[in-house]
Structures are given as C-alpha cells and as structure tokens.
Amino acid sequence: MPNKLIIAHRGAPKLARENTLMTFQKAIDLGADMIELDVRQTKDGELAVFHDQDIGGKKISGLTFAEVNRVAEAQNYQVPTLGQALNLIADKIGLQIEIKEPGYEFKTAEIALEYLKPKNFSIISFDFGILKKIKTQYPQINVGLILGTRYSTLWQMLHFSIKKNKILPVIGLLSVSWKLWQSGFKKLVPDKLPITVWTADEPELITHLLKDKKITAIASNVPDVALKLRKKIYEP
Prior knowledge:
It is built from 9 helices and 11 strands.
C-alpha cells in the first residue's frame, strides 16, 4: 500500500487564514507534501492568490490588486500575488495551482516556471479548455482536471465516460471530490492515473481514503490531522 501524499488545501486554514503567506508557511512547517492554492486575475492584470470570485461584495476581476488588499486589510489579512506565494514555496514543498477561470492561463504558467521546476508543481482547473491550452503551449507542465460539486455525480460519471478518450491524453492527474469518488467514479479511471481526492477533513474519512489503493493524494483543510493519521497507519 503506497504512502499517500497529504496536500494542504489552501494552506492550513484552521491554523491561519486560507491562501495567505502565513498559512502556506504553516503547511510547510507541518511537513505537508504539497500545497494547493487558487489564482484569480485582478482588473490591473495582477495574479492574486484568492479563492472566491468576490471580495467585499465586489468581483476580484473588477478591482485592482491594491483595491483587493484594501478590503482584505480591513479584515486583518493580506492577499498575496502568485509570485509572492511561489517565492515562499519554491524548493520547500510541492504545489497544485488552481486556475479559477480562463484568460490568464499562460501568465500563470510563465510565473510558475519562473519560480518552480516543472516536476514540483501541477496546474489544475475545472475547465478542461484551460488545461488543454497550457499543455499545448507548455508540454512540460503537468495538468489536472478537477471534478465534483458543480453537477450531479451521475452527470459527471456519464460525461467523463463519454469524454475520457479526449481528456486522458492531455491530463496527468485527476482531482476528484470525495463524494464523487465514493459514488463509484473510481471504477472509471485507469489504475495508473494519479488521483487527488478533496476535501477530506473528518478523521474517519481521511483514514478511509488513506487505505484506498487507487488514491495518490488527499487534499485537506486539516493537514496536521491528516499527517498524524498517515503516520499512525504507515508507521504503527
């Protein structure tokens, strides 16, 4: 039974605010294997590490980076640029970069390659078109398709079954919600394809996933808990 990777989902958000430099440092200090972070583009073309579409009731895409941080600073945190996050992370921990919408995929890839070796990161997205563009332009970058939560499990299983001959030659991994994975989706994927399952926070679920032979990595908001459980299973 291979040792599963533990991915700190948006850092360690139970210990410090998600998608901030502080939370990424927490994940590094904990000994997580990887960090997953989110990227959005601001009005002035800056790549901001931020999950939600809106901040303070306004779209990230409609605000400058300075305006985004004025809202964030009023809530006692700071939104980092992708470059700032990668400067902290480089050579310390693996990374999954989630691109939230099309339009800045090449910029994201270029910045990632400035700071990181291709073997140390992947770019993931719900949008297969984004991944196909990146893989065509930057074949050295590993890309992964995210599945789950947006549609019913039945629809996603059917859609993947129909499209997988087009999807699988492009991607190097699948990132699947635990609900979709447990619904029977795992029967549809090749045995050798790396699989990340997200987001597992309950100890019982984490333990179950750690014992699943088809899973490569587990993304969790509580990487400290996941790491302790992994140690308990693999180093009794």
